[in-house]
Design brief:
The protein is an alpha+beta fold. It has three domains: 5-111, Gcn5-related N-acetyltransferase (GNAT) (Aminopeptidase, 3-Layer(aba) Sandwich), CATH 3.40.630; 136-305, Gcn5-related N-acetyltransferase (GNAT) (Aminopeptidase); 313-403, SCP2 sterol-binding domain (Nonspecific Lipid-transfer Protein, Chain A, 2-Layer Sandwich), CATH 3.30.1050. It has helices spanning 14-24, 32-39, 94-108, 142-145, 160-174, 186-200, 259-270, 315-321, 366-373, 379-384, 395-403; strands spanning 5-8, 47-52, 55-68, 74-85, 113-116, 129-131, 134-141, 154-157, 203-208, 226-235, 248-256, 277-283, 299-306, 309-312, 330-335, 344-349, 352-356, 362-365. The strands form three sheets. A seven-stranded mixed β-sheet has the order 1-2-3-4-5-14-6, sandwiched between helices. Strands 8-9-10-11-12-7-13 form a seven-stranded mixed β-sheet, with helices on both faces. Strands 17-16-15-18 form a four-stranded mixed β-sheet. The longest helix has 15 residues, at 94-108. It is globular, with a radius of gyration of 23 Å. The two termini are 35 Å apart. It binds acetyl coenzyme *A. The site of acetyl coenzyme *A has 23 residues, from strand 4 and helix 3.
């Protein structure tokens, strides 16, 4: 018997839930104009509330999405967010009860994977979430950067809704090319681009292979197909590095079809006048920005942090959906306290995965498997850190060979 209960919220309760969540982050309630954007991000059946004494005391929700896995499959995915418990009700099991309800509901609805961004690292491991992708933050001293190469295509600024429309189309086409990327739901764009663009002067520049000039609106490519975009904003300051806060260009979102488009987009931002510093947050680990520059020390990696916390809701479906390299098979033993139907032995081979009764050669909790699932961390590293048990000592190396990926997983979408 608990002193609170968990319910699916209805339309009349979303704003209370939003205000409650913001309160747990020490923010005041959203004013009406902001709420108009946030309202769109509540989907029927996806928001939960915890109630006690007739009041809402906790909430969490998810957004409908898809997630790309190694080999190119794209799986039903829930992006979990707005998790909060009112300060006078914390550490009494409210989040645990909401997690239990949400994990069960998501799995029943057919989602194979859930991911989230964690406010604190101590919270989500117990519920089966593990760090599955990481990102980097870069800072470039633009005046020292001296790019080694010149653009080969055309990058044009596209104003307003036309820019957002092109960016959305390119994002949907390009992002699933990397494991760990997620589909963005419609409200993501309105909250993160449309609202912010209006308030903070966000610009979108679109790249095409053509070298001709475009019309004044920039909405259509002069010739050649669009193959990448960058969204950015400039925070004015001083462009003299010795004088106060430097004028900083922030790269908010950058996607390209190939290396040529990628380099042109970076060269474009590096070429914008009266900017002293370029900062980019949430970029992939393997992005070779330093190699574009004459002075590689002009680019500093200022952070590398956990990005995706991933939960395998349906372990058999998730293991079956990704591909494996040619290597000797291994039998994994999975433990899962919250979704016990996932627990058991799985034989992983280059040709696929089957559930077996064999004794496991490598035993791990579902959050640890989540960290290795997209290839971000090796089983050997996890064994060294004592995050898994290897009754068969050769098993971690065999699992590494099977799960190896050539490109580090990355999401690139903050929510
Ligand atoms: C995806 C997102 O939205 S991230 C945003 C998350 N929200 C926030 O950070 C807002 C501020 N914090 C909160 O609202 C709450 O503290 C929450 C939601 C993080 C936790 O809610 P609670 O109801 O207190 O969690 P609950 O009581 O179920 O805790 C379960 C266990 O997790 C532990 N735990 C929960 N939160 C934390 C934390 N922030 N740090 C360390 N341990 C924690 C508890 O100690 C407990 O451990 P135990 O089982 O060993 O006793």
């Amino acid at each position: 018997m608990t002193d609170h209960d968990i319910r699916v919220l209805d339309d009349s309760q979303y704003r209370t839930a939003h205000t409650l969540f913001r309160g747990t982050l020490h923010h005041t309630a959203a004013p009406d104009d902001q709420w108009a954007f946030a309202r769109e991000s509540y989907d029927e059946g996806r928001a939960f509330g915890a109630f006690a004494d007739g009041e809402m005391i906790g909430t969490l929700q998810s957004f409908p999405s898809r997630l790309a896995v190694p080999g190119g499959a794209v799986l039903p995915h829930a992006a979990v967010s707005r998790v909060g418990v009112r300060a006078d009700w914390t550490r009494r099991g409210v989040l645990s009860a909401m997690q239990r309800a949400q994990l069960r509901a998501l799995r029943s609805a057919g989602d194979v994977i859930a991911t989230l961004r964690a406010s604190e690292t101590a919270i989500y491991g117990r519920y089966g979430y593990g760090v599955a992708t990481r990102y980097r933050a870069l800072r470039i001293d633009r005046l020292k950067a001296a790019p080694r190469t010149r653009p080969v295509g055309r990058v044009r600024l596209v104003e307003g809704e036309a820019g957002e429309r092109i960016a959305r189309g390119l994002f949907d086409e390009l992002s699933p090319g990397r494991a760990g990327t997620i589909a963005r739901w419609p409200a993501w764009w309105s909250l993160n681009v449309r609202r912010v663009a209006a308030e903070e002067n966000v610009k979108i520049a679109v790249r095409s292979a053509a070298s001709g000039t475009s019309g004044t609106s920039g909405a259509s490519a002069a010739s050649g197909e669009d193959d990448g975009y960058v969204a950015f904003k400039v925070v004015p300051g001083s462009h003299d590095p010795n004088e106060g806060k430097p004028t900083t260009l922030m790269v908010l979102d950058l996607w390209a079809r190939d290396a040529e488009a990628w380099a042109d987009l970076w060269l474009f931002v590096l070429g914008i006048d009266l900017v002293a510093e370029i900062s980019a947050f949430g970029r992939p680990l393997d992005e070779p920005v330093q190699w574009l520059l004459g002075d590689r020390r002009a680019c500093r990696i200022v952070d590398e942090a956990d990005e995706t916390w991933l939960r395998l809701l349906d372990v058999p479906a998730a293991l079956a959906a990704r591909t494996y390299r040619q290597a000797e098979p291994v039998v994994l033993g999975v433990r899962d306290a919250y979704l016990p139907e996932n627990a058991g032995s799985y034989r992983v081979t280059a040709d696929g995965v089957t559930r077996v009764d064999d004794a496991p050669e490598l035993v791990l909790d579902v959050d640890v498997l989540a960290s290795a699932y997209l290839g971000d961390v090796s089983f050997t590293s996890l064994a060294a850190a004592r995050r898994l048990d290897a009754p068969t000592p050769t098993a971690p190396a065999r699992a590494d060979a099977l799960f190896a990926v050539s490109t580090p997983p990355w999401s690139g979408t903050y929510f």
